[in-house]
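Moderator note: this is an archived Q&A kept for reference. The question asked for a predicted structure of one protein chain; the sequence and the answer are reproduced below.
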Amino acid sequence: MTDDRDGPVLIDDCQGIFTITLNSPLTRHALGHAMFDALERAVNLADASARDERTRVMVIRSTGGAFCAGFDLAECVKDRDALGRFVTRLASLVQAIRAMPAVVIAQVQGAALAGGCALVAACDMVCACETATFGYPVHRIGVSPAVSLPTLMASAGFGAARFLALSGEIVDAQRARALGLVYLLAPDEPALASMVGELATRLAAKPPQALRATKQWLNQVDGTAADGFLGRRALDATRATTQLCEGEESRAMLEDFWAKRKDRG
């Protein structure tokens, strides 16, 4: 099964590997209404396939020079309520990726920032090109990265999560690996694609019930399962972040940031 080659998200389902490709390089795959619609549909299809035991591995990747630069701020400026809705939709995607029975691999080149970094942190394994960058530079628009914290804490550790969330610093792939967010590095994009392809093939060849049980147990142990000590707080984090988005501080900072960005061209 392969999607329309011109859509914002492409899907390919072959031999137990379900590949989701973000396909809006001109916007650096910004998460706007159309991208969210397409990505939610793709993740739902992958989840259904995984629960039917047809998919054992899901890969999320992108075309062009970036992985995902976060929310589409042009849409957020145009519609004052969009930012809060995007936070809620991102939180649902993060939770769906983590809960999916299949092993999820992020294949990252270029920038994975804000909402893009949240998608990465939700994955089970992160493979990156040495030119990739990661971070949550969202305080500049008056927003918290809290919706990503449960999976970020579980994946990278509490100390690394605290640093990335509070500093808003953008780190390179080597630093991201040292912090525990990235697991495997490749020198360039062809090598990255080859690395991920080989890893996905090896995982897809493993006994499906054992693989599924292992992921489920890992989610229980690290607390990101829906009833875990981190998973139970995901809804609270989403509500708190949405409230920030609705505040005057966030709206004023977003408009100011966007105006300065337009002035820079």
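Archived answer notes: Residues 9-188+210-256 form a domain with the 2-enoyl-CoA Hydratase; Chain A, domain 1 fold (CATH 3.90.226.10).
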